[in-house]
Structure formats: structure tokens, C-alpha cells
Design brief:
Radius of gyration: 19 Å
Strand content: under 5%
Number of helices: 7
Number of strands: 0
Length: about 210
Amino acid sequence: MTTKKRPFMTGKRWAGLIILIFATALTAVYACRTGVDPAVTTIAGSFGSIAVLMIIAYVLKVCDDLFFCGMIFVYFASPVGSVLDMYRSFGPYDKIVHFFSGVLLASFGAMIMSTLLKKAVHTVKSTKCYLFAQAAFAFFFSSAFAGIWEIFEFTADRLAGGEMQRGMVDTVTDIIAGNTGALVYFIIFVIMIVAGKARIDDRLLN
């Protein structure tokens, strides 16, 4: 008997997407009316980031937890951070966003590792070695993207004349913040493995 495939966009996900789009639009209106006056490209970029999130979520087939965490992150990173200009009006905001990006990207990395080793775990009964590899991959995946993001910011500034990067100290501390988030995720993951709380998703063994 074949099981019915779960659709990518469930009712909860549609509701979350509509709320995110509506909140982004309201944030843009608020920013324009309160004198922040964000550039049109900044507002467009916020909606573009939503589209990118949806594409990534579809391609990677992310679970609901990561899907909604990604939505929350995109809202605070782009509409709030860029459109409302929180990155400049509140100094620590940039580092806070980079820290949570490290945690979120580590989660994505762990999920990708599970997918890549899907066939291998059919014969794995003692899972600690697999789980440690998954935790390590999650950390390095997030760490790599912390650097890749800074390359993106540098390229965007050069091509579009933006001001996403504010010097070497800002760039390096952003990378440190992202790596710190990834490290926190890694440590928690390892503690769960040692305590016997982490396990391979049963769906991978079927």
C-alpha cells in the first residue's frame, strides 16, 4: 500500500507565508511613513529574500520547524534589519542576526547530512559515529556560509554601491558571530549524542 505524499505547502505554511508577506509590506509602509525612507531596491530585496527562502525550502524539503524558523529569521534579517535600518540604528543587531544565522545554517547542514547519508544508514545500528559526523558537518556547513555571506555582501556593495559592509572589523566580527552560533548548535548536538538523546530519524531507516 502506497502512502500519500505530503504536499510541500500545507495550510500552516500558506498561512505563515501570507503573514510574512503582509508583515514585510507593513514594515515597508511604516519605514516610509516614519522617515526611514528605505531604497526601493531594499524593499524589493526583502520580498526577494522571501522568494529565495521558499525555493531553498522546496529544494531541500525542509521540515516545518526549519521552515517557520527560516521565515522568522528572514523577517528580522531583511525587513526589520534593512528596511527599518536596525543594522545601523541598533549597534548589536547585526551581530545578533549573524549569531542566529549560524544556528539556523547549522540546522540546515545537519538536515543535508541526513539526506546525503540516507542510503548508508540502512545498515547502521550503532549510530553515534554517524551522529558525530552529522554534527561536525553542520558546524562546518554553517561556518562556510558565514564566509560566503560576507563575499556576497562585498560583491553587492561593489556592484550596487551599497553599504552592507563597514570595514574589516565589521566583516570579521560578523563571521565570528555566525561561527559562534554554529558552535553553540554543535555543542548542544554533541551533548545530546553523549546523553543518548540524539538519534537518526526513523524515516531514514525505512
